[in-house]
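Following up on my earlier message about nicotinamide-adenine-dinucleotide. Here are the inputs again, as you asked, copied directly from the submission form:
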Amino acid sequence: MKDISCKLLVIGAGPGGYVCAIRAGQLGLDTVIVDPGKPGGTCLNVGCIPSKALIHAAEEYDRIAHLAHGRNPLGITAAKPEIDLSQTIAWKDGIVGRLNSGVSGLLKKAKVKIVQGHARFRDGKTVEVETETGLQIIRAENVVIATGSAPVELPNLPFGGPVISSTDALSLTSVPERLVVVGGGYIGLELGTAFAKMGATVTVVEAQSRILPQYDAELTRPVAKRLQALGIAVMTGTKAKGLAKAGGSLLVEAEDGSEKALEGDRILVTVGRRPVTRGWGLDELVLDMDGPFIRIDERCQTSMRGIYAIGDVTGEPMLAHRAMAQGEMTAEIVAGHRRVWDKRSIPAVCFTDPEIVTVGLAPDEARRTGVEIKLGQFPFSANGRAMTRMGEDGFVRVVARADNHLVLGIQAVGQGISELAAAFSLALEMGARLEDIAGTIHAHPTQGEAFQEAALKALGMELHI
Ligand code: FAD
Ligand code: NAD
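Thanks, got it. Here's what our run produced:
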């Protein structure tokens, strides 16, 4: 097979890698991208998109089941719904397939060469790829490592049999009767809630004292309340120890040392993700590491000239939109543009019920920087649109500097509020002050009005509370 020489080689076609390659191609760089799988990486194939498809199906099922359950204030009656999960999964696979083709098409349009196979460094400028038709050698002036992350496997609870990862959970063809979820973080709660809505009896085991421990307790309270209403048992301060000898039951240990066996047809382990730093020849390079992650500077440059790294392999927050932004910037840097990571905020959305959105600093984080702050919080119980959607639990909170009212952070929890993430991020990126948000006409009736009211409240000028 003839060797390939190129200006830019991207290893990994997840959201970081494929965005990097598209932008590089658009800028006229001779670009090659390598991945053994379908383009889109974790996010498109076994992460963001499939999980949101499953969450949507579960919400629809739950809504109808709720209406069928008995009298409701809407005056609607419905028959008890049924769900054929294999059909739901086929629908989800159809969406993933369409997006796979879309990404391939965009790469081709940008004149990026796609090589399917597993890449491995021979040295800092040469990579070999095992393809179906033989070994392909690629020589590149610049390389971007975008190999992403994989689920953490607990040594005492390896994947296999009843013990499943998020990838397996997104391909189940029937709803398990009893599901035990180990880890009450993003994935555990998003998927645990979806399966509970589809009829599974769900238990969540979380090692820390609260679910979603990275957020403050006020923000997660509505989620904890909803989990309870859905009949999900949450065991905090509890660690998974391993499978009980009897078979499918999980042995857990509470903080006081007491042990318990939890019966589960499936045990979904979602205790974090680890960077993929093995299997591609890290040993052939001299890269500085930052714990388990590849160390990068504010230009995504590693400690080796001409080698960049982006996305989950470079650390937290492991989010698709961070990887994409890094990918876009890195392509422009390789093309000779002067770019540096200057983002004020990376929004985070947890697609639980209700949803959580955060950008910038939480109140405690802002206080720790030593500045005096002002807070404004507005509840959805006083928002007309939220009432008409029966989603009154939750709030929007704005954190700003007390002296000049510069907005430092925004947090919200509420039904269907993920779309507010765009307005929150824009406010932070544009350096908005409380007066800018308060003075912007927000359409009525929308949940976004709670954002305006939270800013008004911080200024002591609230109208609707
Ligand atoms: P990845 O998407 O992991 O892609 C890495 C690619 O590199 C893979 O395609 C892999 O095949 C390839 N690769 C690895 N080694 C090699 C090699 N040696 N040669 C060639 N190719 C290689 N994030 C959000 O922002 N929003 C969400 O709603 C969200 N939901 C999620 C739900 C789940 C269930 C999971 C698991 C994750 C979710 N995430 C979400 C996280 C998101 O998927 C990741 O942050 C994102 O995919 C990281 O992108 P990446 O490009 O760094 O790596
Ligand atoms: P996570 O870090 O969000 O949650 C893991 C949880 O497992 C933590 O709360 C931790 O305390 C707990 N835990 C760890 N070991 C345990 C043990 N032995 N027993 C019981 N609990 C234990 O990790 P995740 O849910 O696996 O998600 C991984 C990453 O994927 C996230 O950090 C996020 O970056 C990304 N993701 C994002 C989204 C989104 O943006 N909506 C959705 C899913 C995943």
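One observation from looking it over: The chain has a mean pLDDT of 97. Hope that helps, and feel free to reply on this thread.
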